[in-house]
Amino acid sequence: MTDQPPLPPSSTPPPLPKRRWFARLWHNPRLLFTVLTLLGFLIAIPFGGRWLAYRFTHSLCEDAFVESHIVNLGPLVNGHLLHMLAEEHDTVKAGQLLAEIDPLPYIRQLELAASKVEVAEANLRLERAALARLEAEVPRKIEIAQREVSVAEAEFAKAKHGHELTQKDVAKTISEAKAARAAAQAVLVNATEDYERYGKLFKERSVPERKFEDATKTYKTAHADVAATQAKLERAEANRQQVDIAAKTQEAADHHVQKAEQTLALAKVGELHIKEMQRQVLVRAAQVDEAKSARDVAQTNLGYTRIVAPFDGVVVKRYRNLGDFTPVGAPVMSLYNRELIWVTVNMEETRLEGIAAGNNVRLDVDAFREPCFGRVLWVGRATGANFALVPRDVSAGEFTKVVQRVPIRILVNKDERWPRLRPGLSVSAAIDHGPGDPEWARKAAAEELRMERGVGPVTLP
Fold first, then answer.
1. How far is CA 89 from the centre of its chain?
2. Can you list the positions of beta strands (E) in 58-139?
3. How far apart are CA 133 and CA 123, in angstroms?
4. CA-to-CA distance for 167 and 199, rounded, in angstroms?
5. Whole-model pTM above 0.85?
6. Which has the closest alpha carbon to 357: 430, 429, 439, 414?
7. pLDDT tens for residues 114-154?
């Protein structure tokens, strides 16, 4: 260490150097804080103004998620899983077979239903053949019976007429015989008187013998005439049996008419039998339709053993394994349509003003570094609280005001990151305020509906 030279003698000390302004500021904390505050405020004014402007021209929400229609595929019939042809993360095409239930029981049911159809059709053919036979046979029987009735009625009329004629003839013959007998008896009485008178006179020799002989001859002739008329009357009386025979013939003809009428009535019963067979044919035809419907149901159930993809999509979850027994409706796997993905923003009701369909949206997906962009498709017509499992009931007076949220669907613009979007990802959304674009929203909604339906282009109203 070297010795310093001695200071020259002086009467006054040398002047101190002046401090700079920042040194003075540094050694004055209050002044330093004030300056820094003013400087920070001046620097923050542009950024704060931009932030405030952004807040007033956008609706921000962190309650947003990527969503899609997660479809749970399950069988419509019971059975054991015979084949599993898709795994999780597999990309499938519409109509692709994903799983198959053991079809053997349903094949047997289809065979049984087909056999029942054959039996029902055979019964229908049999009933139709019987109906055709009746339709050909019954009219002929009726025609024959009608002819028999006509013949029987003609025979009855003939027998009745014959009975009437016989009755009249017999009555006339008896009357004539009685009149002839009476006349013969009168002649006999007169002849008897002449015979007795001439016999006395002949004994007295008052008349010649010839007169007595003539009287005797006349008496005998009259007596013979009375006997003849009596025989004729007896013969006429005997003809009364012909009247009885004619009456019995008429009665037999009447019975024949009644029998023919009964035969005709019985033949006409065949018409009722035809109607019955026609109804039976209808019943058999209905049974055939029923059997065919049962066969179609069996065929449908057999088809239900095949679980196919309803649309192009991605399998995201498998719930069953090969050999598991799967009841009706139990999900086997879940998939969604990769082209049908959107973001649902549950926006607070206090921030809905300015939001319209067609507005642009910034989407900060937590899984991506850079933001995505999209547009508002529609704003929900009801709040989510209306669809809660246990909706609030404030009618009892227990009321606490809670800001409600309204779902807003956002269509995401497709870029190279589109395949990496997955349902359930968290999103922060910033929706521009403005009048929107209703025409774009209408066309976008129609296109989304077309994809959901799996059909061709939708005709816009």
1. 41
2. 58-68, 71-73, 79-84, 91-92, 97-101
3. 15
4. 46
5. no
6. 439
7. 999 999 999 999 999 998 998 888 888 888 888 888 888 88
